[in-house]
Amino acid sequence: MSKPTIDPQSGPAPSQLVIEDITVGDGAEAVAGGMVEVHYVGVDYESGQEFDSSWDRGQTIEFPLSGLIQGWQEGIPGMKVNGRRKLTIPPELAYGPAGAGNPLAGRTLVFIIDLVDAR
Known about the structure:
6 strands; Chitinase A, domain 3; six-stranded antiparallel β-sheet
């Protein structure tokens, strides 16, 4: 797989988590609280500005789902290895309301996540 591009979003940002499978995987399934290894790219919903990408660092990232933002904790379980999923995450499930301390607070975020491994 190669780094995905995220097209500009249109319309108002959703108030709920939106999960869209781009490619359904065929491997092990990610489970809540499990370990995942992913490649991902994240952009701001309104501006389309990329704020983070594992692709640009040239390596995947591995972590327990329980340590991630709520939108990932809810949006990744059920994915299968070799799958690609788009998550549109409102602020409440990301970094909280504007002024919450994180530069991404108050923003709706869009991620495309490739599941490399799950256990």
